[in-house]
Amino acid sequence: PYRRQGPESGGPAMAQGDHIELHRKRHGRRLDYDERARKKEARSVHSRAKFAQKVKGLRAKLHNKKRYAEKATMQKTIKEHSERDTKKRDANEGPKNAVPAYLLDREGTSHAKVLSNTIKQKRKEKAGRWNVPVPKVRPVGEDEVFKVMRSGKRNKKQWKRMVAKVTYVGDTFTRKPPKYERFIRPAGLRMKKAHVTHPELQTTFSLDIIAVKKNPQSSMYTSLGVITKGTVIEVNVSELGLVTPAGKVVWGKYAQVTNNPENDGCINAVLLV
Known about the structure:
Elements: H1 16-27, H2 33-54, H3 57-81, E1 84-89, E2 109-114, H4 117-125, H5 142-145, E3 146-151, E4 157-163, E5 183-184, E6 193-198, E7 203-214, H6 219-224, E8 232-236, E9 252-257, H7 261-264, E10 268-271
Parallel strand pairs: 4-5, 6-10
Antiparallel strand pairs: 1-2, 3-4, 6-7, 7-8, 8-9, 9-10
């Protein structure tokens, strides 16, 4: 069938969205784009309120459910961001004069405002901004990570891929039937433990992996649990006895992989503190 050719390349025609992207790359946006976007955002509240007042029936139910979820998330975020009081015992602070027997065990406490530890963690997570030991990594192509598997009666189908790198697969994972499994993660390359070094204690611990947080190569590798050099993983640090300022035990912490696990046969990582 006839296909319209592209204006410059001589190749097949681009989708309309690609033309817009190309124009934006060459000439940039309108000078007042940011201001218009800000005003549009400010006006959206009024249009949303107008819609909420007019909508009826099933659409109203769906709309209210969506707004309820948004408000609940907002309230949760505000609650997490709010500072809270923490009581800290002062060893030096004590009674100067004689005190009754029932007050002998009591020690002075100082109140301090601390920001929720989860918020600090989330701020670091935002866009993967951590002070990492390996800031730059070698790009790993798909041809290196995935090996093409031939399937079908005459081995003509080539839609299956075998992952040739070390992966982490959770305990609750259940394989699809082999006929329908697109990405095959070999059991021999699955790992559940990592040798994690604490940079301040200068000690290495063998810890369980909880999840693959971010693979810098691709979001697809992250979802598949592929672990390459520079990947940020979450490890179980409950046995290290780390606690928050409020006195709660820290369950999981992030660590960055510093070696090539597929070459060494083990995962070495540095804890991000």
